[in-house]
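Summary of Year 1 activities. Much of the first year was spent building the evaluation harness for sequence design. The harness presents a backbone, in tokenized form, and records the residue chosen at every position. We chose the following record to illustrate the format because it has been used consistently in internal testing since the harness was completed.
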């Protein structure tokens, strides 16, 4: 499932009460993280599943990176800079995974740390 489709479903469901953006971001990160873990386990037999999971995660991070790069973003500048760095790292590390030079572990760790931050359980990095 693409990030765009996941976001559309999250926002388009009239039967669900309004959710705050942090909850939506958390859910999208959780889905991408679960998909990365599942795809990594199946990488030897279904590489396309891994490529799709990496692509969905990178698309989410591209949106997050663009959001924190926007001067009107209300997050503190230092946090915005950290999140933008994580976007850049995610893009580079995603290429390394697809080239067989790394694993998804670091991406899972990054997503998990950001999810903790969204839940108020600690920092994002």
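For this record, the design step produced the sequence shown next.
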């Amino acid at each position: 499932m693409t990030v765009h489709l996941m976001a559309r479903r999250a926002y388009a469901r009239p039967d669900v009460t309004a959710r705050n953006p942090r909850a939506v971001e958390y859910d999208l990160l959780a889905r991408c993280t679960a998909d990365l873990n599942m795809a990594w386990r199946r990488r030897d037999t279904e590489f396309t599943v891994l490529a799709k999971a990496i692509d969905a995660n990178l698309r989410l991070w591209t949106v997050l990176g663009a959001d924190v790069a926007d001067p009107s973003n209300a997050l503190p500048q230092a946090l915005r800079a950290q999140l933008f760095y994580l976007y850049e790292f995610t893009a580079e590390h995603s290429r390394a995974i697809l080239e067989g030079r790394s694993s998804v572990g670091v991406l899972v760790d990054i997503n998990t740390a950001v999810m903790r931050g969204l839940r108020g359980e600690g920092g994002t990095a």
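Residues 3-118 form one domain. Quantitative recovery figures across the full test set are reported in Table 2.
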